[in-house]
Fold:
Amino acid sequence: MTRQFTVGYLIGSLATESINRKLAMALVKVAPPEFHMTEIPIRDLPLYSYDYDADYPPEGRALKDAIAAVDAVLFVSPEYNRSIPGPLKNAIDWASRPWGTNSFSRKPTAVIGTSPGAIGTAVMQQDLKAVLSFCDSPQMNAPEAYIQFTPGLITDDGDITNDGTADFLRTWMEEFHQFTRRVLAALAESQ
Ligand code: FNR
Structure:
Protein backbone atom coordinates (compact mmCIF):
# COMPACT_ATOMS: atom_id res chain seq x y z
CA MET A 1 0.00 0.00 0.00
CA THR A 2 1.27 3.51 -0.82
CA ARG A 3 2.44 5.43 2.20
CA GLN A 4 0.19 8.34 3.22
CA PHE A 5 1.55 11.64 4.54
CA THR A 6 -0.04 14.43 6.55
CA VAL A 7 0.94 17.91 5.40
CA GLY A 8 0.24 20.99 7.50
CA TYR A 9 0.01 24.28 5.63
CA LEU A 10 0.52 27.75 7.06
CA ILE A 11 -1.00 30.71 5.22
CA GLY A 12 1.01 33.90 5.66
CA SER A 13 -1.96 36.24 5.17
CA LEU A 14 -4.74 37.03 7.64
CA ALA A 15 -6.80 38.92 5.03
CA THR A 16 -10.38 37.84 4.39
CA GLU A 17 -9.93 37.97 0.62
CA SER A 18 -6.40 36.58 0.68
CA ILE A 19 -5.22 35.39 -2.71
CA ASN A 20 -2.74 33.14 -0.90
CA ARG A 21 -5.63 31.44 0.90
CA LYS A 22 -7.16 30.85 -2.55
CA LEU A 23 -3.84 29.40 -3.69
CA ALA A 24 -3.74 27.13 -0.62
CA MET A 25 -7.25 25.89 -1.41
CA ALA A 26 -6.16 25.18 -4.96
CA LEU A 27 -3.10 23.26 -3.74
CA VAL A 28 -5.31 21.12 -1.51
CA LYS A 29 -7.39 20.27 -4.59
CA VAL A 30 -4.43 19.31 -6.80
CA ALA A 31 -2.49 17.52 -4.03
CA PRO A 32 -1.58 13.89 -4.79
CA PRO A 33 -3.75 11.19 -3.17
CA GLU A 34 -0.88 10.34 -0.80
CA PHE A 35 -1.13 13.78 0.85
CA HIS A 36 -3.68 14.56 3.54
CA MET A 37 -3.71 18.37 3.81
CA THR A 38 -4.61 20.24 7.00
CA GLU A 39 -4.33 23.93 7.82
CA ILE A 40 -2.21 24.99 10.79
CA PRO A 41 -3.77 28.28 11.91
CA ILE A 42 -1.59 31.20 13.03
CA ARG A 43 -4.21 33.93 13.50
CA ASP A 44 -4.65 33.72 17.29
CA LEU A 45 -0.99 33.63 18.28
CA PRO A 46 0.09 36.50 20.56
CA LEU A 47 3.22 38.37 19.54
CA TYR A 48 6.14 36.17 20.61
CA SER A 49 8.46 37.09 23.46
CA TYR A 50 10.89 34.80 25.24
CA ASP A 51 9.11 35.79 28.44
CA TYR A 52 6.63 33.08 27.40
CA ASP A 53 9.27 30.34 27.22
CA ALA A 54 8.92 29.25 30.85
CA ASP A 55 5.17 28.73 30.43
CA TYR A 56 4.01 28.52 26.80
CA PRO A 57 0.41 29.69 26.35
CA PRO A 58 -2.15 27.31 24.77
CA GLU A 59 -1.85 29.02 21.36
CA GLY A 60 1.90 28.43 21.28
CA ARG A 61 1.58 24.83 22.45
CA ALA A 62 -1.18 24.17 19.90
CA LEU A 63 1.06 25.41 17.10
CA LYS A 64 3.96 23.23 18.17
CA ASP A 65 1.69 20.21 18.64
CA ALA A 66 0.18 20.74 15.19
CA ILE A 67 3.60 20.84 13.53
CA ALA A 68 4.76 17.78 15.49
CA ALA A 69 1.68 15.90 14.28
CA VAL A 70 2.37 16.35 10.55
CA ASP A 71 4.95 14.75 8.27
CA ALA A 72 5.73 17.93 6.33
CA VAL A 73 4.92 21.64 6.34
CA LEU A 74 3.90 23.81 3.39
CA PHE A 75 4.16 27.61 3.56
CA VAL A 76 1.78 29.56 1.31
CA SER A 77 2.52 33.23 1.76
CA PRO A 78 2.34 36.70 0.28
CA GLU A 79 5.31 39.04 0.10
CA TYR A 80 4.93 42.14 2.28
CA ASN A 81 7.46 44.91 1.72
CA ARG A 82 9.75 42.43 -0.02
CA SER A 83 9.80 40.02 2.92
CA ILE A 84 7.89 37.62 5.19
CA PRO A 85 4.56 38.94 6.53
CA GLY A 86 4.71 39.68 10.26
CA PRO A 87 2.10 37.10 11.33
CA LEU A 88 3.98 34.30 9.59
CA LYS A 89 7.37 35.29 11.01
CA ASN A 90 5.74 35.49 14.43
CA ALA A 91 4.40 31.95 14.03
CA ILE A 92 7.83 30.66 13.01
CA ASP A 93 9.39 32.31 16.07
CA TRP A 94 6.79 30.64 18.30
CA ALA A 95 7.39 27.23 16.71
CA SER A 96 11.17 27.55 16.94
CA ARG A 97 11.16 27.96 20.72
CA PRO A 98 11.57 27.28 23.66
CA TRP A 99 15.26 26.71 22.96
CA GLY A 100 15.99 23.06 22.27
CA THR A 101 12.47 22.28 21.06
CA ASN A 102 12.58 23.81 17.57
CA SER A 103 9.57 22.36 15.73
CA PHE A 104 11.15 22.66 12.28
CA SER A 105 14.23 20.56 12.94
CA ARG A 106 14.21 17.67 10.44
CA LYS A 107 10.72 18.65 9.24
CA PRO A 108 10.46 18.68 5.42
CA THR A 109 9.13 22.01 4.12
CA ALA A 110 8.25 23.76 0.88
CA VAL A 111 7.50 27.40 0.13
CA ILE A 112 5.12 28.90 -2.41
CA GLY A 113 3.31 32.20 -2.77
CA THR A 114 1.36 34.44 -5.05
CA SER A 115 1.12 38.17 -5.65
CA PRO A 116 -0.41 40.36 -8.34
CA GLY A 117 3.07 41.48 -9.36
CA ALA A 118 5.24 39.58 -11.83
CA ILE A 119 7.83 38.85 -9.15
CA GLY A 120 5.35 36.44 -7.54
CA THR A 121 6.73 36.57 -3.94
CA ALA A 122 10.26 35.61 -5.02
CA VAL A 123 11.97 37.99 -2.59
CA MET A 124 9.85 36.84 0.37
CA GLN A 125 10.66 33.24 -0.51
CA GLN A 126 14.39 33.89 -0.34
CA ASP A 127 14.00 35.36 3.15
CA LEU A 128 11.72 32.54 4.29
CA LYS A 129 14.12 29.91 2.99
CA ALA A 130 16.96 31.55 4.91
CA VAL A 131 14.87 31.46 8.10
CA LEU A 132 13.97 27.81 7.55
CA SER A 133 17.63 26.99 6.94
CA PHE A 134 18.49 28.43 10.33
CA CYS A 135 15.61 26.38 11.75
CA ASP A 136 17.29 23.23 10.38
CA SER A 137 14.45 22.29 8.04
CA PRO A 138 15.16 20.13 4.98
CA GLN A 139 13.65 22.27 2.20
CA MET A 140 12.53 21.49 -1.31
CA ASN A 141 14.84 23.68 -3.40
CA ALA A 142 13.34 22.89 -6.77
CA PRO A 143 11.09 23.37 -8.56
CA GLU A 144 10.52 26.95 -7.42
CA ALA A 145 7.01 28.41 -7.65
CA TYR A 146 6.41 32.13 -8.09
CA ILE A 147 2.74 32.54 -8.96
CA GLN A 148 1.50 35.80 -10.47
CA PHE A 149 -2.14 36.17 -9.49
CA THR A 150 -4.09 37.51 -12.45
CA PRO A 151 -7.77 38.34 -11.83
CA GLY A 152 -9.86 35.15 -11.64
CA LEU A 153 -6.86 32.80 -11.81
CA ILE A 154 -8.22 30.88 -8.81
CA THR A 155 -11.88 31.03 -7.79
CA ASP A 156 -13.08 31.56 -4.23
CA ASP A 157 -13.58 27.79 -4.06
CA GLY A 158 -9.98 27.08 -5.03
CA ASP A 159 -10.61 26.06 -8.63
CA ILE A 160 -7.79 26.97 -11.02
CA THR A 161 -9.10 28.52 -14.23
CA ASN A 162 -5.90 28.27 -16.28
CA ASP A 163 -4.87 24.79 -17.48
CA GLY A 164 -1.15 25.61 -17.57
CA THR A 165 -1.20 26.85 -13.98
CA ALA A 166 -3.23 23.83 -12.87
CA ASP A 167 -0.71 21.46 -14.47
CA PHE A 168 2.21 23.34 -12.94
CA LEU A 169 0.74 23.33 -9.43
CA ARG A 170 -0.23 19.65 -9.67
CA THR A 171 3.32 18.78 -10.71
CA TRP A 172 4.78 21.00 -7.98
CA MET A 173 2.72 19.20 -5.32
CA GLU A 174 3.80 15.83 -6.69
CA GLU A 175 7.43 17.02 -6.48
CA PHE A 176 6.80 17.98 -2.83
CA HIS A 177 5.36 14.51 -2.25
CA GLN A 178 8.45 12.84 -3.68
CA PHE A 179 10.73 15.18 -1.70
CA THR A 180 8.86 14.41 1.54
CA ARG A 181 9.03 10.69 0.84
CA ARG A 182 12.79 10.83 0.21
CA VAL A 183 13.57 12.97 3.28
CA LEU A 184 11.51 10.87 5.67
CA ALA A 185 13.01 7.65 4.29
CA ALA A 186 16.53 9.03 4.80
CA LEU A 187 15.74 10.22 8.31
CA ALA A 188 14.20 6.85 9.25
CA GLU A 189 17.30 5.07 7.96
CA SER A 190 19.67 7.30 9.93
CA GLN A 191 17.93 6.79 13.29
C1 FNR B 1 1.91 44.26 -0.38
N1 FNR B 1 1.99 43.76 -1.67
C2 FNR B 1 3.22 43.38 -2.17
N2 FNR B 1 3.32 42.64 -3.33
C3 FNR B 1 4.53 42.20 -3.76
O1 FNR B 1 4.60 41.52 -4.77
N3 FNR B 1 5.67 42.55 -3.10
C4 FNR B 1 5.65 43.31 -1.97
O2 FNR B 1 6.68 43.59 -1.40
C5 FNR B 1 4.38 43.76 -1.49
N4 FNR B 1 4.30 44.49 -0.33
C6 FNR B 1 3.10 44.64 0.28
C7 FNR B 1 3.03 45.15 1.59
C8 FNR B 1 1.82 45.21 2.23
C9 FNR B 1 1.78 45.68 3.67
C10 FNR B 1 0.64 44.81 1.58
C11 FNR B 1 -0.69 44.86 2.30
C12 FNR B 1 0.69 44.37 0.29
C13 FNR B 1 0.77 43.46 -2.44
C14 FNR B 1 0.33 42.05 -2.15
O3 FNR B 1 0.98 41.16 -3.03
C15 FNR B 1 -1.19 41.92 -2.35
O4 FNR B 1 -1.86 42.76 -1.43
C16 FNR B 1 -1.66 40.49 -2.16
O5 FNR B 1 -3.06 40.43 -2.30
C17 FNR B 1 -1.26 39.97 -0.78
O6 FNR B 1 -1.59 38.61 -0.65
P1 FNR B 1 -2.83 38.17 0.26
O7 FNR B 1 -2.66 38.85 1.58
O8 FNR B 1 -4.08 38.68 -0.47
O9 FNR B 1 -2.76 36.69 0.30
Remarks:
- Strands lie at 5-11, 35-39, 72-76, 109-115, 146-148.
- Residues 13, 15, 18-20, 78-82, 115-117, 119 surround FNR (CB under 6 Å).
- The radius of gyration is 16 Å.
